[in-house]
Design goal:
- The protein has a single domain, classed as Trefoil (Acidic Fibroblast Growth Factor, subunit A) (Trefoil), CATH 2.80.10.
- The radius of gyration is 19 Å and the shape is globular.
- Strands 2, 3, 4, 5, 10, 11, 12 and 13 form an eight-stranded antiparallel β-sheet that branches. It has a four-stranded antiparallel β-sheet with strand order 6-7-8-9, with no helix packed on it. Strands 1-14-15 form a three-stranded antiparallel β-sheet, with no helix packed on it.
- The longest helix is centred in the first third of the chain and has 17 residues.
- By secondary structure, the chain is mainly beta.
Amino acid sequence: MKIKQLLVPLSFLTLLLTTQVASAKNMVGWRVKGSGSGIVEGKRYSLYNLDQKSHLGYQDRRGANLGWDSQPNSGMKIKRQSGSGAIKCGENFALFIEKEWLIYEKQTTGINISTRTKLADDRYQWKFSDCQRGEVIQLNKPVTLVNTVENDSVVGCKRVWGVNLCWANTVFSYDGKNYHKDAIPSWIKNRVPVPLP
């Protein structure tokens, strides 16, 4: 009887030690792939997602016209409202993926992001954070991509509807993978001894 009582706490402890469970607030989730000394206007890059292990690209769909490419696509570019040189930490910019500019917009399904073909004054709503303010954003290193309207970072995740992107405050991370709070598999819910979002 004592052995059984000891095995339960030990198996619970083993699960906690071998499984990484993390909060997903303000998450590093991207890598801007390219060459040069920083991200500059007029140059194309590939925006690689660390969770999805793919490059963000254009895909015609309801809501945000976004999808995933397995290979670098040189589909990302940025535009700043003013200034010159490489984009720095905390500096606002407009974000373009292959055919359209990304903006915050309420959606009935998927993440609250939409895309537009025209650049307008309300499109400058992205920035890189979790870095030293004023520091040039380095290429090919992990970065946090924040939307200034939602005031949250966007990350890759498994979700029920739409492109596999989520706001960090709606994500549960388990064993190195992100899940939207509505798409957490039941086998995780049965294993995790902490409250889920």
